[in-house]
Design a protein that fits this description.
The structure is a homotetramer of 359-residue chains. Helices cover 43% and strands 11% of the residues of chain A. With 359 residues, chain A is of the alpha/beta class. An 8-stranded parallel beta barrel of chain A has the order 3-4-5-6-7-8-9-10, surrounded by 7 helices. At the A-D interface, helix 1, helix 2 and helix 3 of A face helix 1, helix 2 and helix 3 of D.
């Protein structure tokens, strides 16, 4: 508790007056920076040029009189200058598309008649498409349980060049045939900008994986595509880096964006990654686009998929991604974390009373 | 899919026979290691001596004939030897107390009549006890909302030596008076082994904070105390390190243990720590003791406490810890993350339909 | 110290005999796994199929007699089976190219007459090529100080889509003209597999950046190129992931590989990344290819470039990468970490007595 | 490059004038905050009370006219208010002792005649004191090689309660007897505030380990001791947290401080921790006290001790700490990382031409 005293009150009132004066001065400086920006743009300069112009003059040196040391004062002046520069750079530029506007409601997407962004969806399927039988059996099984999104990789990002790299375009055709036969929307990962167009011919939803979150050539190609995109978080990406990666997609006109939290790399060896539920909570506030959570990859094991799925939904996730394979021990990748069919039935039964995805 | 072929089947059958032979040989070796251990203990050696004796002989050199390179073979031999040594070390020793025995049910504690380990509990209160008015007002407020555990620090672990260090023993007395006046159990952190006895005179539950998770002198003193202990996870502790820290408490006979996940340190700057819901899920499997989650510290901000609390409970946490202060902006520590009373009412209302802790 | 006792000695002798038996049995099993592999390959199976075949049979259940619990025994059996599977997979396959063979000497590359892999090299230049004047002035300045490698980005990986993305192909032409005019080899980053061919027409050395370390489409294209490649470590990549990324390049026949440590992401906020000197030390043991260290990016500031450079060289790095710009405050990217010309002169003077790169 | 234009120049001049006005206003506000502080202290308030008083009034609301959104403006106002609060808090308080004053030279300590803080020292010895023979043999060996500081643990911080916990006070006596017999200064770790006094009776230098870096009860006791203290960095401690932990020691009057970097916890599995050479470089700038580097613990293996030691010294470390044991395979702790005598001879020979610590 602050002590009470009239002399103190007078000093505090003066402090308050100085704070109001500060606000007015910073606003005046902001308007001056904007005028600089308008002039630079009129001269043909870029947004960055406009920003740089506002900081072209050296910052003023602190007077000797003040109680602060010059470094502290410089921090304030630099902040005000940086804000002016940011203002100048935004002049004539759009705000970040990825941020939720004031009062902006959640975005809803509809893919093959299936809504995303409201009641929780489930995106399930094998790590990789391996054969027509494998993917068709999986699609039939999932469709019967209310799953509406079938995932399956045709191009696999593999840590080792000697591991199975996916079936390529034939895999895409098998995935999409299986999905259509059972009324599902298909989701598949793209790795190479040159494959995006072909992937769009087959798949309903494109996915950009964690390793490619900052593959800007791929993001641009996917931004030009007319397909919804699931953008996974990079394994050591901050939220701001992830959102700016998403902005690469949005900036090129593709607004059908879905963000997928998949765990971040930490020191803990018992799980493959640490599912970051704070990220889900923060994104649900800051971003209008649907957020889903991949629970298979952060776990890297089957025994905690149910609590991770519950936690992700409780934190606000609007969907789950989970790997399901008819015969995980013979799977060509990620054998240790894919659920088999009975395992997936137990997973659904633990999440929803009637053992089906609701809706 | 593996190809089918009779010659292959014969080779596979041979492989299977060799696997069975391997099991028998490893078991024989295990029994031999145990005999060594029994002999070493009979000669007055310690458990560690017994373990070391089993690896006193140099490992055999791989023969030249084999297909493995010597390094690979050494890994197998070292594993078998290490397991034998572990077996030898356990000979005559108890298993880890902290691990759930086969089929062992969840432990339930009862503190001042309030159960822990079943329906979710809430441990709430200010970061630090600051005055009789502050802690009593908080206790009255919390008790009216079904909270049964009042937290408040008398000894504060402060990063800077120039920050408020807590009221010390007078703070303990204020906390416990407020708790008793309103039928609550009190929870307080201890920092110094020399304070444990005094803390036990006042508080119902002791807490060991994240910074002291491996303060073994403190853990031993707390292990000798006859009070339940909340042991928080260190900010960069693996689950195994945390469980072994808990074992220090259990090994001295204090079995009233509560584990508290409070977030781990990662690279993400938007939150103070990353709440690790996988840890909650894994501990609920591996440990019979109650697990609670502190949501205030990992968040370091108020706006995501509700989704973090929901996620922690969904992952299996049996309770929540949250900081509540009558006037957070004037709080002497952690001002930015403590909830005020209306904020805590909104928090409860978001978690439970009638705005009270159930039960 | 283990106690001495004849009965104990007899028991230890028996343990030693069992260890030798174990080695022989594991080798027999290895040969049996190899025979399985040979048969699977003869039947048209892939290396992975061969590996999987060796584990197609369920592992044997532990007998009831043994002292181990079944889980422990399973770990041994699984290890032996996994080693057999690895042996089977390698059958008929090359070893990892990236690993140093027994007794293999360091690789030396020569680019435009300048050797890499012996005495330390310096790769210097601006973050981005901005103009003919900028890059030519830099090239002239660097050449006069014994620098032989000129870096400069034409395609810039930028976190935000609204930041300067580089000049593209014109930037490549400016870079290579400046390099040739001053007898330097040019180094430039590629982002898009479709740009690799064009980049090869201009640049002497290609670079794959940290964000693209696991951009496998790009790695493959670079693996097909006939140009040396600098592969930077991803910011959260383990050494094994980095080496396997390098293997993607080597597997396609490009053996002119240079690995560049550039810091890993940690919790420490004072530097942009943590330069991992252990990684340099370990790679120098395990890998015959040249290792260099980028000191500008991990520092993210200018004041510790000298000690970081000294530490990197002391740990075994065969070169340094550092950002130098004629006018860093007006630079279009990375302004806060690029050295200006007098700063680079001080940097060289601190590292080498005559203020020049030796050799 | 910013475009050139007279109208722009006029606008820039106005911006410069506003920057100078800003400096004056912030200084005025700083002086007003100081007056508040003086008054609060005169009324009996603490430094924290003084700080809080300056922010007791709500910050002003941004006027509607300005170009910034209220959030941006709030950041500036909050920064200025926070700086004012910091100024108020420092009023009548000492600056941080741990920071190097302007122009302050490096501190030199002398322990038993051996200087610390100039030419590199080596602190070597076993992880734990195990017997008179072991520690005396080590002391004799080290003294003959120019080592002047003998380390050895009597109280061991052990992750598991069932591991060897050290010999306790008898271990202290053995350590100090061995050190004195060979003209060495002894260094030993303390874990419990109650052991500090006894440790001071035997040892020349106290050590606070990584796990206890924020054990404030221990830091305070060590701060009251009249012995030099080696304070190791916590395994996930930021530099600022480490420096504030050191400040706990200095604040109680013990200015014989030595800081020891020992690696930070990261995701990389090949080493036990990541030696942070940037931390060494930054501390050498910011702190006048000696900085040493423990190379054994971050490595967790023997094969990279030489390059780590070279890198630490190159980054500015004024000493090395390394574990040496006469018979590492029989050591009771840290067997895999301790050097044996021939290994330590090779280590010295790699670092210094005559195979001895110079000086």
């Amino acid at each position: 508790m602050a002590p009470q005293d009239p002399a103190l009150d007078a000093l505090l009132a003066e402090l308050g007056a100085l704070d109001r004066e500060l606000v007015l001065l910073v606003e005046r400086r902001g308007r001056a920076a904007l005028e600089v920006a308008v002039r630079v743009r009129a001269l043909g300069g870029s947004a960055k040029d406009a920003a740089r112009a506002t900081t072209a003059l050296a910052p003023p040196v602190a007077s000797a009189a003040g109680p602060f040391d010059p470094h502290e004062l410089a921090v304030v002046v630099e902040l005000v200058r940086a804000q002016g520069a940011a203002l100048a750079e935004r002049e004539g530029q759009p705000a970040l598309h990825v941020r939720r506007g004031a009062g902006e409601p959640d975005r809803r997407l509809v893919v093959r008649g299936h809504p995303i962004g409201g009641a929780p969806i489930v995106i399930a399927g094998p790590c990789a498409v391996e054969s027509a039988e494998q993917i068709d059996a999986t699609a039939a099984f999932l469709a019967a349980r209310g799953v509406r999104f079938l995932r399956g990789g045709a191009y696999k990002p593999r840590t080792s060049p000697y591991d199975f790299q996916g079936l390529g375009e034939p895999g895409l055709a098998l995935l999409s045939a299986a999905a259509r036969a059972h009324g599902l929307a298909s989701v598949t990962e793209v790795l190479d900008p040159r494959d995006v167009e072909r992937a769009c011919e087959h798949a309903d939803v494109l996915q950009v994986g964690a390793r490619n979150m900052q593959n800007f050539a791929l993001l641009r190609e996917v931004g030009r595509a007319r397909r919804p995109v699931v953008l996974k978080r990079g394994m050591a990406a901050t939220l701001d880096e992830w959102l700016l990666a998403a902005e690469h997609v949005l900036a090129l006109g593709n607004e059908e964006l879905i963000l997928c939290e998949r765990g971040i790399r930490t020191f803990e060896p018992r799980t493959r990654a640490t599912l970051d539920v704070s990220a889900i909570a923060l994104l649900r506030q800051d971003v209008p686009f649907p957020i889903v959570a991949d629970v298979s990859h952060p776990a890297g094991r089957r025994d905690i998929l149910v609590p991770l799925a519950r936690a992700a939904l409780a934190a606000g996730a609007q969907g789950l991604m989970v790997e399901v394979h008819p015969d995980p021990v013979r799977a060509r990748s990620d054998a240790q974390q894919q659920l088999d069919f009975p395992g997936f039935d137990r997973f659904l039964a633990a999440l929803w009373p009637d053992g089906r995805v609701p809706g």
